[in-house]
Amino acid sequence: MKSASASIDAKINQLGDWRGKTLAKVREIIHQADPGITEEWKWAKATSPGVPVFSLGGIICTGETYKNAVKLTFAKGASLPDPAGLFNSSLEGNVRRAIDIHEGDKINEAALKNLIRAAVAFNLQGKPKRATARRSV
Question: Can you give the residue ranges of the YdhG-like domain (predicted)?
Answer without folding.
Answer: 20-120
